[in-house]
Amino acid sequence: MAIRKVGVVGCGLMGHGIVQVAAQGGMQVVAVESDKAALERGLGRIDKSLAKLAEKQVEKGKSTPEQAKAFVEKTRGLIKGTLDKKDLADCDLVIEAIVEDLAVKKALFKELGGLCKPSTILASNTSSFPIGEMAAASGRPERMVGLHFFNPVQLMRLVEVVRTDRTDDDVFAQARAFGEACGKSPVSCKDTPGFVVNRLLVPYMTQSLLMLERGDASAEDIDTAMQLGCGHPMGPITLTDYVGLDTTLAILKGWVERYPDEPAFEIPKILERKVKEGKLGRKSGEGFFKWDGDKKA
Ligand code: CAA
Ligand code: NAD
C-alpha cells in the first residue's frame, strides 16, 4: 500500500513543517488543530515558507516565476485544514505533533485508534516519550512508529524512524518510504529515550544551561564558542530558544521522572524559571535571547 493521504495533528512549530513537506512530496494532507486561531497561524506559516522557497527557486534560476507560482499553488492545493479529527478517518498515515505531554498524546492515540480505518499507520513526532506506550494506547501497536522530524522541518534533512518490538516490518518500511517522499534521509532507531539525536543533543543543551546558571560564561560567549570552535550552525543556547523552552523542559522532566539514576538527565533551574515567566524562546519572543519574529532582536 502506498501512502497517498496523510493526516497531521497539531500545526505548530513542527506540525506545520510536516504538513508542508508531505504536500511537497505530492501527498494529500489533512492538518488538524484544536482551535481556529492556531490552525490559521499554522497555515499562515506554510504560506510564508512556500513563498520563501518559491522566491529562492527563481533567484537561483531553478524555476521561472510561473513554475514557482505553480509549485506554490499545487502544494497549497493539497493541504486541507480542519478542526474535526473525523476528517482523518481515511488517511493512510496520521502523524501526531501536539504538545510534549504523554497523557495528552495517549488520549489522542486512543481516539485515533477508534476513528481511523484499520489500515491507517499511526506515528508520533515525540522528542522523548516511548513510542510503545502510545502504540499500546492506540489499540493497534503493530501499525505504530515514531517519525521524528527536526526543526525547522523544511530545512533539516533527517527523519528518525522508530520501531517498537511490535511494529510490523511492512509498516516500518512504509514509514521510511514516507520520510524519503518528504525529501528526508531516514535513519532507523529503536524505541529508546531520545532515539539517536536527542539522547546526544538534549544533555548537551542542558550542560550549556548549567554553565550559564553557574556564571561560567555568557550566553553569547557559549554560543560563539560552539559555533566557531566546533562549526555548529547555531550555539546551544540559541538552539534551546529555537526548540522552545517549554518543550525542552517537558523532555527533561519526563526523563528525570522515568530515569532518576541517569546523571545526564538534569533540569537546570534557569530553564524552569524562564518557563514559569512565560519566556518560551523564539515562539514567545523571548527566551535566553530576545526575538523579533524569526530573527534575534
Ligand atoms: N521555510 C523556507 N525557507 C526557510 C525557512 C523555512 N521554514 N527557514 C529558513 N528559511 C530560509 C531563510 O529565509 C534563508 O533564506 P535566504 O538564504 O534566502 O535568506 C535560508 O533558509 C537559511 O536560513 P537562515 O538565514 O535562517 O540561516 P542559516 O543558514 O543559519 O540556517 C538553520 C538556519 C538551518 C536553522 C541553521 O541555523 C541550523 O541548522 N541550525 C541548527 C538547527 C538544529 O539543530 N535543529 C535541530 C533541533 S533539535 C530537534 O529538532 C529535535 C527535537 O526533538 C527537539
Ligand atoms: P507547538 O507548541 O509549537 O505546537 C503544538 C500544536 O499542537 C499547537 O499548535 C497546539 O494548538 C496543537 N495541539 C495541542 N493539542 C492538540 C490536540 N489535542 N489536537 C490538535 N492540536 C493540538 O509544539 P512543537 O514544538 O511543534 O512540538 C510538537 C511535538 O513535536 C512535541 O511532541 C515535540 O516534542 C516534538 N518536537 C519538537 C521539536 C522542536 O524543536 N520544537 C523538534 C522535534 C520534535
SSE blueprint and pairings:
Layout: E1 5-9, H1 15-24, E2 28-32, H2 36-59, H3 65-77, E3 79-82, E4 93-96, H4 102-115, E5 121-124, H5 131-138, E6 144-149, E7 158-163, H6 169-181, E8 185-190, H7 197-214, H8 219-230, H9 236-243, H10 245-258, H11 269-276, E9 291-292, E10 295-296
Parallel strand pairs: 1-2, 1-4, 2-3, 4-5, 5-6, 7-8
Antiparallel strand pairs: 6-7, 9-10
Helix pairs in contact: 1-2, 2-3, 4-5, 7-9, 10-11
Bound molecules: acetoacetyl-coenzyme A (CAA) and nicotinamide-adenine-dinucleotide (NAD).
Q: How would you describe what is shown here?
A:
This protein is an alpha/beta fold and 297 residues long. The protein is built from 11 helices and 10 strands. The strands form 2 sheets. Strands 3-2-1-4-5-6-7-8 form an 8-stranded mixed sheet, sandwiched between helices. Helix 1 (15-24) links the parallel strand 1 and strand 2 (28-32). Helix 10 packs across helix 11. The longest helix is centred in the N-terminal third of the chain and has 24 residues, at 36-59. It is globular, with a radius of gyration of 19 Å. The structure holds acetoacetyl-coenzyme A (CAA) and nicotinamide-adenine-dinucleotide (NAD). Residues 9-15, 32-34, 38, 97-100, 108, 125-127, 150-151, 243-244, 247 line the site of nicotinamide-adenine-dinucleotide.
